[in-house]
Amino acid sequence: MTDPADLPLERKATLLSGQDFWSTPAVEEAGLSSVVLTDGPHGVRRQADDFDRIGLLQSLPATCFPPAVAVGSSWDPDVAERVGAAVGREARALGVPVVLGPGVNIKRSPLCGRNFEYYSEDPLLTGVLGAAHVRGQQAQGVGASVKHFAANNQETQRMQVSADVDERTLREIYLPAFERIVTSARPATVMCAYNRVNGVYASQDRWLLTEVLREQWGFEGVVVSDWGAVDDRVAALAAGLDLQMPGDSGAGNGRVVEAVRAGDLDEALVDRSARRVAALADLVAEPADGFDADAHHALARELAAQCAVLLRNDGAVLPLAPGTRVAVVGEFARTPRYQGGGSSHVNATRVDDALTALRAALPALSFAPGFSLDGSGDAAALREEAVAAAGDAEVAVVFAGLAEDDESEGFDRTTLDLPAVQVELIRAVARASPRTVVVLSSGGVVSLEGWHDDVDAVLAGFLLGQAGGSALADLLTGAVSPSGRLAESIPLRLEDTPSFLTFPGEQGHVRYGEGVMVGYRHHCTVGRPVRYPFGHGLGYTTVETSGLRVAVTGDDAASVSVTVTNTGERAGRHVVQVYVATTAGPVRRPARELRAFTKVPLEPGESRTVELALDRRAFAHWDVREGGWVVAPGQYTVQVCANAAEVLAEETVTLTGDTVVPELTLGSSVAEWFEHPVVGPPLLEGFLAAMPDGAAEMHAGMLQMIGSMPMRRFAADFGAAIPPAELDRLVAVARAARAG
Fold it and tell me: What is the mean pLDDT of the chain?
């Protein structure tokens, strides 16, 4: 292959944007093939016909695996990796070298319309699962595209809204998942977001695309735009964006050529990006000979069953015993909601519905639709039919949720509530039936208020992919034990969510005023009760936690050992969740933060001892003054939790942490000078020696009054006490101590 940099300027510039909606141009003289990039992440959306248009509904059949909202609830990187691997196999068969995904944006608000494509409200859980998906997909020779970089947490005004967020919050909440994936899984591409970050479009943010992504994290792949995200092609290229998608008939490339010839853009930047894009051609291969649709459907069913979350199970109403007279209620039982709307919509090879699967397992079963999905029909009559069926049954199972029109790419929700007709149905059925189970299908959390206390069990399926119907039947009948855990909190009220007052923003800006207190971090820190906390989930067995041991393994690291025992009569999978709580350091920390987890299979009576490492980042905060991660010396409480709100066992350790010698200037405050670990003691001694009798007693009160005054001003007012030459000397002393 010829070095693209050796091509004429106009030819190498053609590599910098698509030739159409879904592919890069071939450059025959350089030996470069065209590369197809197409939507994912939970299935391949390979357009069947003309690439000159978006063709959202014209795609080749492919398996719709559980979307990220479900995989997030699995808390299992093996599930994520197997989804990625299967998507990779189908991409090879469909002639797709790059599948766009996974989406790893944080669920800042439960109202985000695209939450079904994202894993979690927690950056560790999101990053671990996203990295596993990338490893699985790229092991099949198919490149991944981690998206949407960065702070893309809403659909409202997504093409231009500015996410106004401080650096500590970016570093601790919104960037770590991308960082983990880039540094550990080496994705082929990273997709920049539509939105602006602190006023700068992500597509032309040099700090984001070059300083952070490449210089700090070592990314070597292609930065590709989200489709239509480039505002200024020359500025984007200079910032570090390599590939503009889709093609714009060469207009952007023409501007790049003009800028180079005018001396406004260094041609070396064109060469750099051309080489990166050219490297994608290495992923092009002859299409594989199809894929096993039956095997992949079976895999989708197996994985989906590990993703649903059993929220409530009073009186062990679940699993449904053989021979139980069951009334299935709800149109979603026979017309399943299994994926989200928008660019990730997969043309499924087949779709299972729960009603058919339940009928095979429970012959004594009746059905009533209860409501219509489009609002047609007589709502009262449909409800009465369902109530009659429930009254004749031992258990009623109501399938409820949101339709695809209620949540999709392109818009955000305005409420967490289920449609009123469904709430009325659930309450009416619960009054008529001896026992009631509710099965939920939705791309994001929904409110359980107004009906939760009327029912006996709640199974949150979220969106489970094309085999979700059969998977739900497996869970309801006990063929599989539920093992999912909530990857996002379910609030009592929308008003209780941390971003309530600022989501989705106004006049082109959304202010991330809650800072690092996102999701459970907020709820736990302020003591705000929720209906169900992050990490909650039940199974059909019971697990006991014992023998917690925490060992310090360095100045800024520790290891955790804990034993879990299945004390029930059924096999199950248990999620060990390890959190860290601390007040050490100069910044406000959340009450606790997830720092390690693992999912453990347990047979009845089986015990397993799990060992997990807590590295430096498990204890660190982002220090905006130091411009890096700092582990403050002090105490850290390591907690093994059932969920974010329930501590099962804890142990406190003391870490030496980092010795930070702060920078001092004449602009630093008086308090910073007097509290400086090196300069402070001699400064205070000299100051007090020069002051009148009684000054020592007045020092504490004085510091409270003037502690925030810049030293420059203080020295001007109290020049006799601290000579300027002495201040200059102490600045030099502090600088030397900081340098080590």
Answer: 94
Contacts of 321 by beta carbon, 8 Å cutoff, 6+ apart: none
| 3-state SS assignment for residue 460 | strand
CB-based contact 25:47 (threshold 8 Å): no
Cβ burial, residue 507 (10 Å; 0-12/13-18/19+): exposed
* Tens digits of residue pLDDT in 444-500: 999 999 999 999 999 999 999 999 999 999 999 999 999 999 999 999 999 999 999
Output the six-digit token pair for 687. Answer: 């100051």
Cβ atoms of 109 and 151 within 8 Å: the answer is: no
pLDDT of residue 739: 85
Which residue, 142, 138, 119, is CA-closest to 129?
119
For residue 99, which of 45, 59, 49 has the smallest C-alpha distance? 45
- DSSP H or E stretch at residue 440: strand 435-441
pLDDT tens digits for range 348-375: 999 999 999 999 999 889 999 999 999 8
Active site residues: 226
Q: Which two tokens stand for residue 242?
A: 């390599």
Smallest CA-to-CA distance from 229 within 159, 177, 282, 157 is with 159
Tokens of 404: 């695809």
Please say whether the beta carbons of 270 and 13 come within 8 A: yes
Record the tokens describing residue 513, joined without a space. 């005023």
Distance CA 184, CA 89 (A): 22
Question: What distance in Å separates the CA atoms of residue 475 and residue 456, rounded to the nearest whole number?
Answer: 16
DSSP of 481-524, one letter per residue? ------SS-EES-GGGSTTTTTSS-BTTEEE-TTTT--THHHHH
For the chain, the first-to-last Cα distance in angstroms comes to: 49
pTM above 0.70, yes or no: yes
Distance CA 674, CA 721 (A): 14
Phi, psi of 332 (to 5 degrees): -65, -20
Three-state secondary-structure class, residue 66: coil
